[in-house]
Specification:
about 140 residues; alpha+beta; seven-stranded antiparallel sheet; 3 helices; globular
């Protein structure tokens, strides 16, 4: 007795979702579906969503230094206009040492955090950063 295509898709779904899991190793992470809508709503809960995401994204969310964030603005990402907030922080290693300052672009789709661009380049060019102390006060 073989496995139907429907059952195979159900079995493979967790693997596909795991491929979108957070990381801090130079890859882009995505956690929602982009339906291509051009008229994007402002991400009202961006701070809370970002903090929740960063707790899972960082290997050690405790003791982050230099937390700063730019308010979400509309930028073109992958040929589509999206709200993007830029983030800067210095992560803490498990041995207590600190890595170099990181810059990330946080992309929102349909008003929700969608993905992290780990090498934002032009996306964050000219961003106006303000202190983001909540990032520095995260716990596990």
């Amino acid at each position: 007795m073989g496995i139907s295509a429907k059952h195979l898709a159900i079995l493979l779904l967790p693997i596909a979702l795991a491929a979108c899991a957070s990381n801090d190793d130079g890859r882009e992470s995505s956690i929602s579906i982009d339906n291509g809508t051009a008229n994007q709503p402002f991400p009202e809960n961006y701070r809370a969503e970002l903090l929740a995401f960063m707790k899972t994204y960082l290997n050690n969310p405790v003791g982050v230094h230099d937390g700063a964030m730019a308010e979400p603005v509309q930028r073109t990402v992958g040929g589509r206009v999206r709200y993007v907030s830029c983030l800067r922080y210095t992560p803490r290693e498990s041995d207590g040492s600190y890595l170099n300052l990181r810059e990330r672009a946080i992309v929102y789709v349909n008003g929700r955090l969608d993905r992290v661009v780990e090498k934002p380049g032009e996306i964050c060019a000219g961003a106006t950063y303000a202190p983001f102390p909540d990032l520095e006060h995260m716990t596990r």
